[in-house]
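If you are new to this repository, start here. Below is one unmodified record pulled from the training split, so you can see the exact layout before writing a loader.
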Amino acid sequence: MACASASINTSLLFSKQPSKLQKKFNHTPSLSLTTTRSMRVRAETMSTTIEKLGVKIERNPPESKLTELGVKKWPKWGCPPSKFPWTYSAKETCYLLEGKVKVYPDGSNEAVEIGAGDLVVFPKGMSCTWDVSVAVDKHYNFE
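And here is the target side for that same chain:
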């Protein structure tokens, strides 16, 4: 979650033409009144979930979800840029801290692209090829 500071300028400019109320009290303002307020704005990137070729990807999951799953307590695994085959003997959920990978499920010419900030679920029994273009550092959990 990111925080940013923003200034909001609110200008109240009085018209040269007096209002009915101003005429009633014989008051014609000639000043310009400007107020400045500072406020904090909280921005949280929206989480999006997609499923492609049997792989479920949640991009930018909220911190509350990662905490609920206990992601930081999961084991870690990493690898340098490389290409290798892999078969999931159990369902795996992982959270990528770093990296960029194209995963090619066996029998498909299409790839599933995953990267840093993605929460990914691979189904049990899936065989694929990992094509790692940026070194991976991830937390993972088998079910």
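Two things worth knowing about this chain: Confidence is low (pLDDT under 50) at residues 1-15, 31-43. Residues 83 and 131 are 4 Å apart (CA to CA).
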